[in-house]
């Protein structure tokens, strides 16, 4: 019912872009710093929104990153995860921006 309100949809999309910008910055920093506590905080904040949007790739890669840290993976594997998550988030942000623009 709320998704028939174009102003609400645009606002939701803009908030989503902001959230994903913050998440990917924190994800990159904390994963590469091997900071599990702050990586978990970043993941905890984004998971509900990602799940609500059906962005399971975000949750899956986040869970994989925690395993990489637990397994003391090499820097190359961590960089690979950062690149993959960056690509996923970039795609989501583009889609949200496109949807917001379509509402105006």
UniProtKB/TrEMBL annotation:
The modification Phosphohistidine is found at residue 44. It comes from the Bacteria. Keywords: Dioxygenase, Oxidoreductase, Phosphoprotein. GO terms for molecular function: dioxygenase activity; protein kinase activity. GO terms for biological process: phosphorelay signal transduction system. Residues 5-104 form the HPt domain. This is Taurine dioxygenase.
């Amino acid at each position: 019912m709320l998704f028939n309100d174009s102003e609400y949809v645009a606002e939701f999309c803009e908030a989503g872009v902001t959230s994903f910008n913050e998440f990917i910055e924190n994800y990159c920093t904390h994963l590469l710093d091997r900071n599990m506590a702050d990586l978990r905080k970043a993941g905890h904040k984004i998971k509900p929104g990602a799940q609500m949007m059906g962005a399971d790739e975000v949750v899956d890669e986040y869970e994989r990153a925690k395993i990489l840290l637990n397994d003391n993976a090499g820097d190359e594997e961590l960089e690979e995860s950062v690149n993959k998550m960056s690509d996923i988030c970039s795609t989501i942000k583009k889609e949200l921006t496109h949807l917001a623009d379509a509402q105006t």
